[in-house]
């Protein structure tokens, strides 16, 4: 399979905040109820953090019952390169093979979670939505919320029955580097990295410090409350309105895109915007691609 051409973002306004939020997030008690029902969702454990390699061991030590471990580095990304970034989008055929191995089915909901407020699980949420699966949710608050609700964990590996999902890319909008540059000038391009990286004060991973000229600093962590759950709708709406990512009373909706270091935590920001009805495009190559291209300008 070949990847589709990048698709432009758009802003939606239909439906209530509560209804939109329910299509993106699921609370721990609701997941427990669904798992006990006749049509339990496929649950994916996407525990990952930059430089941390023990996600599989963490999964074996304790996970949501039935959850299948997903390796972000090898299953949710193609091999890294300077030209494409640290976490390029996987080849659709490879993603389909992996998703079927996880047990993902076309007629079954999917719930993804991690132990870092959804900031890595959102990558799986975004990829499956991009791949055409329209019933994927993030466990709000992740593993901590599951445990805080009093639900038990299982141990060991999980090997599900193979799934039948067919990957059909194009379900979510994507930006390339040129598209990101254009959107920074004509719309709203959000930089989801920490503020000090955006400002160019530090750069622990990529070759140049700074940000895409015209991008707006919008750290992903500011989407979360102290307990690791997403902020409520009113707080998120105020946050993104202040960043210019929501239309004013008489304004046309802006085109919105998001990038981060390598296209992982930016997916969390896309999810946060989706709870408000804003469909934002993901610049998949993100700063790891941009900063490796000497022809691309850098702002600090």
Description:
- There is one protein chain.
- Residues 1-14 have low confidence and may be disordered.
- This protein is of the alpha/beta class and 300 residues long.
- The termini are far apart.
- It has 12 helices and 12 strands.
- The strands form 3 sheets. A 5-stranded parallel beta sheet has the order 2-6-5-3-4.
- The protein has helices at 17-22, 28-35, 55-61, 72-75, 92-101, 121-130, 142-148, 177-186, 195-199, 233-242, 265-274, 286-290, and strands at 10-11, 25-26, 42-45, 68-69, 110-113, 136-139, 174-175, 188-191, 216-217, 256-259, 278-279, 281-283.
- Strand 3 (42-45), helix 3 (55-61) and strand 4 (68-69) form a beta-alpha-beta unit.
- The protein is globular.
- The longest helix is centred in the N-terminal third of the chain and has 10 residues, at 92-101.
- Helices cover 31% and strands 12% of the residues.
Helices and strands, with pairings:
Blueprint: E1 10-11, H1 17-22, E2 25-26, H2 28-35, E3 42-45, H3 55-61, E4 68-69, H4 72-75, H5 92-101, E5 110-113, H6 121-130, E6 136-139, H7 142-148, E7 174-175, H8 177-186, E8 188-191, H9 195-199, E9 216-217, H10 233-242, E10 256-259, H11 265-274, E11 278-279, E12 281-283, H12 286-290
Parallel strand pairs: 2-6, 3-4, 3-5, 5-6, 7-12, 8-9, 8-10, 10-12
Antiparallel strand pairs: 1-11
């Amino acid at each position: 399979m070949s990847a589709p051409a990048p698709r432009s973002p758009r802003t939606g306004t239909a439906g209530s905040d509560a209804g939109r939020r329910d299509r993106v997030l699921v609370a721990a008690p609701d997941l427990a109820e669904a798992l006990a029902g006749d049509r339990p969702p496929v649950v994916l454990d996407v525990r990952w953090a930059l430089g941390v390699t023990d996600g599989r061991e963490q999964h074996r030590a304790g996970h949501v019952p039935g959850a299948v471990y997903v390796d972000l580095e090898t299953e949710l990304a193609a091999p890294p390169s300077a030209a494409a970034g640290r976490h390029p989008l996987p080849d659709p055929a490879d993603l389909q093979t992996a998703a079927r191995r996880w047990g993902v089915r076309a007629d079954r909901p999917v719930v993804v979670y991690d132990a870092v407020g959804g900031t890595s699980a959102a990558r799986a949420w975004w990829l499956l939505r991009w791949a055409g699966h329209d019933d994927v949710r993030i466990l709000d608050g992740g593993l901590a919320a599951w445990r805080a609700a009093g639900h038990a964990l299982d141990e060991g590996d999980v090997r599900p029955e193979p799934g039948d999902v067919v990957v059909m890319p194009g379900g979510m909008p994507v930006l390339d580097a040129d598209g990101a540059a254009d959107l920074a000038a004509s719309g709203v391009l959000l930089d989801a990295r920490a503020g000090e990286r955006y400002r160019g004060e530090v750069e622990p991973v990529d070759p140049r410090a700074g940000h895409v000229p015209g991008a707006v600093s919008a750290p992903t962590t500011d989407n979360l409350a102290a307990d690791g759950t997403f902020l409520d709708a009113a707080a998120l709406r105020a946050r993104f309105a202040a960043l210019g990512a929501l239309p004013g009373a008489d304004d046309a909706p802006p085109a919105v895109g998001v990038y981060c270091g390598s296209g992982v935590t930016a997916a969390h920001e896309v999810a946060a915007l989706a709870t408000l009805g804003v469909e934002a495009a993901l610049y998949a190559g993100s700063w790891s691609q941009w900063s490796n291209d000497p022809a691309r300008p850098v702002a600090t």
